Predict the 3D structure of the following.
Amino acid sequence: MSFKFTEENLNRIQESRKKYPTALAAVMDTLWIAQDQNGYITNEVMEEIASVLGIDKVLVLSAATFYTMYHKKPMGKHHIQVCTNVSCMLRGGYEIWKQIKEKYGIDNLGVTDDGQISIEEVECMGACGYAPMIAINEDYYEDLTKEKVEEILGTLK
């Protein structure tokens, strides 16, 4: 299967590229745009990014594999990330992680059979003063309790 950026996304990449001094510096934005289009990052996607940016594929691979925000396999329609780093852990992050795993019957990077939910345990989401927190796709929820989490999960359709 071959991957090619849409014309709209090529324009997004060109605009993004203007913000950076080198093509390599634009690799993270370009990975994000690719994931937005394809849903996850494959070898074909990385080859296309390397081609579009004019950089070596190994440089794309190193960014795609280092950062957890780039998915290497299809994830659920609602991708839930649960922070369990120190601040979140001290304020109930592991209890929330366990709650979500048990609710959906999946483990880290698992996807429900219907493809609606995936979950991921993450190290830090940068909101230590508002711990514990989760993210669902691009929406962040802070200062959570198990009850608040249950309300939030109840809104997912």
User: Anything to note?
Assistant: The first strand starts at residue 78 and ends at 83.
